[in-house]
From TrEMBL:
Main location: membrane
Listed GO CC annotations: plasma membrane
Homology family: Belongs to the binding-protein-dependent transport system permease family.
Biological process terms in GO annotation: glycine betaine transport; transmembrane transport
Pfam families reported in the protein's UniProt record: BPD_transp_1
Record organism: Nocardioides perillae
UniProt name for this protein: ABC-type proline/glycine betaine transport system permease subunit
Places the protein is found: Cell membrane; Membrane
Length: 124
């Protein structure tokens, strides 16, 4: 949650004050300025925080297997527990590559979401 909150605060604070003044000058209230000006301009920064949190969660989920949590991290710890065994490397590679693939897919989906939801005027 920290990267999302941090990026949301930074994104909302970094909106150009002249744009906010222009919105108020056009008669927008505080809620309209937030929803129609601040959030759309801060969205790419907020989404970057969401992407960062997603990647951090993937790493934490792999480590969760250490305390018998579900997930691909179990393969990694099984492989490490069988070091020297016939399939130890296979277990570790399956878990590691699986986590990397899931993380890359999640990141690609969030990147696509950002491209679909970010105004063309902001991205240039």
């Amino acid at each position: 949650m920290l990267p999302i909150l941090r990026n949301a605060v930074v994104g909302l604070r970094e909106v150009d004050p002249t744009l906010l003044e222009s919105a108020r000058g056009m008669g927008m209230g505080a809620a309209a300025v937030l929803w129609r000006v601040r959030l759309p301009l801060a969205w790419p920064v907020i989404l970057a925080g969401i992407r960062t949190s997603t990647q951090m969660t993937m790493g934490i989920a792999a480590i969760a297997a250490f305390i018998l949590g579900p997930g691909l991290g179990g393969f990694i710890f099984t492989g490490l527990g069988q070091i020297g065994g016939a399939n130890a490397l296979d277990y570790a590679l399956v878990g590691t590559i699986g986590i990397v693939v899931v993380a890359l897919l999640a990141d690609a989906l969030l990147l696509l979401l950002g491209r679909l939801t970010t105004s063309k005027g902001i991205t240039g």
